[in-house]
Amino acid sequence: MKVGVRAHDFGRQPVASLAANIREAGFECVQLAPTKAIEGIGSFADINLGHLDEALEAFSRQNLEITVLGCYIEPSVTDNEQRLKNVEIFRQNITNAKRLGIKIVGTETTNMDINTPTAEREKIYALLKDSVLRMVEQAEKENVFVGIEPVAEHTLNTPQLTRRLLDEVKSDKLKIIFDPVNLVLPSTLFEQDKIFNELFTLCGEEIVAVHIKDIEIEYNEKMWREIGKGAINYSLIMPWLHKNKPDISILREGVKPESYARDLTVMKGWVANV
Questions:
Q1: CA–CA dist 67, 87 (Å, integer)
Q2: Is the CB of residue 63 less than 8 Å from the CB of residue 23?
Q3: Which residue, among 196, 179, 181, has the nearest Cα to 231 in the 3D structure?
Q4: N or C: which end of the chain has fewer CB within 10 A?
């Protein structure tokens, strides 16, 4: 199991110093969102072959694996023209990932009111499915995985719907990024064990990366806490990963300069002591 971090949590930097600083901090791998992390790349349209080659060289020199290429788009937005533009951005980043030797391109799905009526939710799910089919078509050409992250407040909001998407797309290039915080609502945190076990049962084989953060609920809102000091039941999650996904990368989200040493110690402790 590899312990990693979101690259842009170290701040936007030239790619050489970014990679060096992350390695010096002690992390082994990253989720890289170039538009958020690399100085000089303000949008996906800015990315060129020179940027890709420079990133590959910089991270390789530091012996840092780029586990996930972050390409967070809106794959189920109801504006069809915009949705298809978003999908094309993602498809291009699948090609970019291939050039960089990255196995996974990751995204969430579109934000959705949790009170959306079932009929409307079905229509928006159909847009998501169409987008994912187009994304997977490119992924199959490039031999890269599409990593979709279920989020309780988004279109893909439950383990059951995630399983349905996997079954209907029918591609071994569609995989799941597991973020335990994002799978719960303030009102469902008390059900987290049930939700996580459902995801493991229904989709566990397809999980290819894990995001690590922690929360408490205050005034019916998620409030960030140091990992291991919040309410997320990592004593359930980590043994399952150790048993079923021993080679997976666990990627810290929201790391801060003053706390990354502690975060790293906690995460490495989880990996070593399960």
A1: 21
A2: yes
A3: 181
A4: C
Answer whether 98's CB lies under 8 Å from 144's CB: yes
Q: In the prediction, which pLDDT does 274 show?
A: 57
* pLDDT tens sequence across 141-166: 999 999 999 999 999 999 999 999 99
Q: How far is the C-alpha of 246 from the C-alpha of 248, rounded, in Å? A: 6
Kindly state the tokens that stand for 253: 């989200």
> Read out DSSP for 195-235?
HHHHHHHHHGGGEEEEEE-EEEEETTEEEEE-TTSSS--HH
Task: Find the distance separating the first CA and the last CA of the chain, reported in whole Å.
Answer: 11
Q: What is the pLDDT of residues 217-274, one digit of tens each?
A: 999 999 999 999 999 999 999 999 999 999 999 999 998 888 889 999 999 999 997 5
Whole-prediction pTM value? Answer: 0.96
Report the C-alpha gap between 93 and 99 in whole angstroms: 10
- 3-class SS at 171? coil
β-pair partners for 13: 38
Burial state string for 95-122 with b = 16 or more CB within 10 A and e = fewer than 16: bbbbebebbbbbbbbbebeeeeeeeebe
Cα distance between residue 38 and residue 211, in whole Å: 21
CB contact at 8 A, 41 and 68? no
Q: Which of 56, 69, 68, 63 is nearest to 22 (CA)?
A: 63
Which of 235, 196, 233 has the alpha carbon at shortest distance from 214?
A: 233
How far is 220 from 189, CA to CA, in rounded Å? 11
